[in-house]
Amino acid sequence: MEMLNITIDGIKTQVQKGTTVLEAARGLNINIPTLCFLKELNEVGACRMCVVEVKGARSLQASCVLPVTEGMEVKTNSKAVRESRNMVLQLILARHDRECLTCTRNLSCELQKLSEEMGIKDIGFEGTKITHVIDDASPSVVRDQNKCILCGRCVSVCKNVQGTGVISFANRGVKTTVTTSYDKGLSEVACINCGQCIKMCPVGALKEKDDRHKVWEALDDDDIFVVAQTAPAVRVALGEEFGYPVGTNVEGKMVSALKRLGFNRVFDTDFAADVTIMEEGTELLNRIKNNGKLPMITSCSPGWIKYCEHYHNDFIENLSTCKSPHQMLGALTKTYYAEKMGIDPKKMFVVSIMPCTAKKYESAREELSVDGLQDVDAVLTTRELAKMIKESRIDFKDIEDASFDKVMGDSTGAAVIFGTTGGVMEAALRTVADVLTGEDLKNIEYAPVRGLEGIKEATVKIGDLDVSVAVVHGTANAGILLDRVRNGEANYHFIEVMGCPGGCINGGGQPIIMDKEKTEEVCRQRAQGLYSIDRQMTNRKSHKNPEIKALYDDYLKEANGHKAHHILHTHYVKRSKV
């Protein structure tokens, strides 16, 4: 390991050869501003906010792409550097739609934060502005090019992390824009609605489709019975919007806030996650025993499902036929619960609170309905729920804790870990292991499927059967794994795929992480929050949930049975890449 001697702002240090000036400065706690930079993803030096002065160089250098050299002397805060950054920021702002007060990213905008830190009060340039039509036809993602600063982050994450590449740069000079093929809307191309572009955008050029108005209208209608359900990952992220440490479980206050908002019932999507394990676990066992289509692949992530339909549709038969948990709960609310309580399902309105923007698209799919009624009527992201709580003037930190409503409010530790990559696999193994061995196994934590590695593989010994499994998150990684399966290089019984990197804890609808360098650590803390809940649960296996037992005894009768298939299962379709 060759070490080089450099000096930054008068501080002498040694860094490894190949290190950039930006990395070296951050190692010394010297904060160089960036806008376009994303480590190992978007290192292009495009925005020029990170320029530094290097002794002997003829001009200022972009520190994010500048490797250190022996004896290098760097100034990060000289007059020339400050003036350059100030001018670059003014040039960006000159073309930017500066309607900050009405922007969805107000107070969570990196451009706004930099402008405040650098004391920008006046803009000395008159930029050439081209007014773009807002693309809001997608049910999940709204694209507003009037606010785009051409940083390229969305392009990089769409292509390199998600493997779709549906957006890219077009044109030159002042006409440069980020757009789709033939400038079509996102709803007309093979976008998977994952919302990772929203998470990476430093400004408000990308945002989720806001469905709060639909929910408010339903809540204000006394003739409608409005039900809320909340995904596992929401409870360990919602608190961040109200000043809680990352990963804090705010389940009790979240449920209380939803009841204050006026929901007639608040159910736990974790209940349906337990149902998913009963259905999906049984489906897996049936495929293994009866020479069914293997590997079986999970169907909980709608972004992944749409990716499979567009890009790897030769694997559609491998997909589990199970609906995702929130769709299952919506269907059960309008059948099982409605029948049990004597409520007309046509007067029910089910709202899913999800960490995911792709759920908005999913809920509108024609296939996800029972007897002509959509399973779910509206989907709100974690961010949208936080906005509803704030606009209702609810003091989130001060409200009392409340519990989910019964009949579909109990869940297990297996269900709560659905929110992180590897969680669905681990939950399924806990139940499948008991079924195959006929025992109540005590060793139920499957460490090989945990963690944030892009692709994880394991062989799990269950009784006399060696179950070969794989866990993958981020659809580009899914594509790599499926290519290996297709080419005969890998062989599995069961594959879990989560569309978003890290799984639902890092879904496109979760709170914005301002410091993108901390994304992985935030994911770890949110995941630990879920694993902590799991360890504290009395029941940690889905088939041990008493409400699940009642559901099957009183209504469904058997997992994968005729009634269960009618309500809880679906099918998927091949879609074109174009």
How many helical stretches? 18
**How many domains make up the coordinates?**
3
SS strand fraction: 5-15%
Alpha carbon gyration radius: 25 Å
Distance between the termini: 47 Å
Helix content: 25-40%
Task: Strand order, main sheet: write it out.
Answer: 2-1-5-3-4
In the CATH scheme, what's the topology name of the largest domain? Rossmann fold
Question: How confident is the prediction overall: mean pLDDT?
Answer: 96
Oligomer: single chain
Going by helix content, strand content and strand pairing, the class is alpha/beta
In the CATH scheme, the class of the largest domain would be: Alpha Beta
Please name the CATH architecture of the largest domain.
3-Layer(aba) Sandwich
Work out the number of β strands: 19
Query: How many strands, which pairing sense, and closed or not: the largest β-sheet?
Result: 5 strands, mixed
Task: Give the low-pLDDT segments.
Answer: none
Could you say which overall geometry the principal axes of the C-alpha atoms support? globular
In short:
The chain has 578 residues and is an alpha/beta fold.
Structure report:
- There is one protein chain.
- This protein is α/β, with parallel strands linked by helices and about 575 residues long.
- It has three domains: about 5-75, Ubiquitin-like (UB roll) (Roll), CATH 3.10.20; about 90-210, Alpha-Beta Plaits (2-Layer Sandwich), CATH 3.30.70.20; about 215-570, 3-Layer(aba) Sandwich (Rossmann fold), CATH 3.40.50.
- The protein is about 35% helix and about 15% strand.
- It has 18 helices and 19 strands.
- It has helices spanning about 20-25, 80-95, 110-115, 155-160, 195-200, 210-220, 250-260, 270-290, 300-310, 325-340, 360-365, 380-390, 415, 425-435, 475-485, 520-535, 545-555, 560-570; strands at about 5-10, 10-15, 50-55, 60, 75, 140-145, 170, 175-180, 205-210, 225-230, 265-270, 295, 350-355, 370, 375, 380, 455-460, 465-475, 495-500.
- A five-stranded mixed β-sheet has the order 2-1-5-3-4, with helices on both faces. It has a four-stranded parallel β-sheet with strand order 11-10-13-16, with helices on both faces. A four-stranded mixed β-sheet has the order 12-19-18-17, sandwiched between helices.
- It is globular and about 80 Å long.
- The model has no long low-confidence stretch (mean pLDDT about 95).
